[in-house]
Specification:
The protein has five helices and no strands. It has about 140 residues and is an all-alpha fold. The longest helix has 28 residues. The protein starts with a helix and ends in a 6-residue tail after the last helix.
Length: about 140
């Protein structure tokens, strides 16, 4: 093989071989989406005056943070295995905004907490679509 052919082959991505931890990344992003949906449901119950709405909403946020940590770890492993860096960037951004969201909620800043929660739902949906979509982090 000539050196120009080797150089061209080195530049081409490994097209259809999924990174080793892509299944973990898919599962963890699905869990993130489920946790975000649970947060939306419990927020609605809280705004509707449910007795234990605040406690359930606060406890469910811990599951979301844990799911995001697993997603970040999986995205790092996929990236190290030759996958795209986009899911890692999206997961990190979502985690940063989730920490801000958690802080706003704990401090009672509902006027910012609720709209940011809606934006995070969009972010979680985009993350799932990116990972589960056609090229999905490959």
């Amino acid at each position: 093989m000539s050196s120009s052919a080797r150089t061209a082959a080195a530049r081409e991505p490994a097209a259809s071989v999924p990174p080793r931890f892509h299944g973990l990344l898919r599962a963890s992003t699905a869990f993130v989406a489920a946790c975000m949906l649970l947060q939306g449901i419990t927020a609605g119950q809280l705004l509707d005056g449910a007795e234990h709405g605040s406690e359930i909403h606060r406890n469910a946020s811990g599951f979301l943070v844990a799911a995001l940590l697993v997603t970040i770890a999986a995205a790092i492993l996929v990236r190290r295995g030759g996958g795209s860096a986009r899911p890692l960037a999206a997961a990190l951004a979502t985690a940063v905004f989730t920490v801000v969201q958690f802080s706003l909620g704990e401090n009672g800043a509902t006027a910012v907490h609720v709209p940011l929660g809606v934006a995070l739902m969009g972010s979680g949906t985009a993350l799932v679509a990116q990972v589960w979509g056609g090229r999905g982090g490959r």
